[in-house]
Amino acid sequence: LLLESKQLVERLNGLKIEIYSNEHPPPHFHVKSPEVNATFAIEDCRQLTGHAPSSALQKIVYWHQFSKQKLIEAWNSTRPTDCTVGKYSGV
User: Fold this and answer.
1) By CB neighbour count within 10 A (0-12 exposed, 13-18 middle, 19+ buried), where does 84 fall?
2) Are 46 and 38 in contact (CB under 8 A)?
3) CA dihedral over 40, 38, 59, 57, signed as positive or negative
4) Alpha carbon separation from 54 to 36, 37, 60, 69, 88 (Å, rounded)
5) pLDDT digits (tens, 9 = 90+) for 42-59
6) Would you give the DSSP letter of residue 46?
């Protein structure tokens, strides 16, 4: 049985920003809403997968500028001991 937990990092104008515990590289976060289902790299906020309209992308990129540390803390606090990705070091 594989369980995956989610940590809600923030709600931003209808966007739900989450970190999942059992993940793959690179360290990233998920953004979900009725119009958005995408993942973004913690390092530079580049979109990795999914779809986000330009209006949502602008909000996400702006939010990331001020919230990267919050994402790193959420990522690191949710890593299970057997996680292949491990903690985010910022290198």
Assistant:
1) exposed
2) no
3) positive
4) 10, 13, 10, 24, 28
5) 999 999 999 999 999 999
6) -
Q: Give tens-digit pLDDT for 61-79.
A: 999 999 999 999 998 888 7
Residue 18 gets the label, from left (phi > 0), alpha (psi -120 to 50) or beta, of beta
pLDDT tens digits for range 13-34: 999 999 988 788 899 999 999 9
Burial of residue 38, with CB atoms counted within 10 A of its CB: 0-12 exposed, 13-18 middle, 19 or more buried: buried
Please state whether 86 falls in left (phi above 0), alpha (psi between -120 and 50) or beta: left
pLDDT at 89 over 90: no
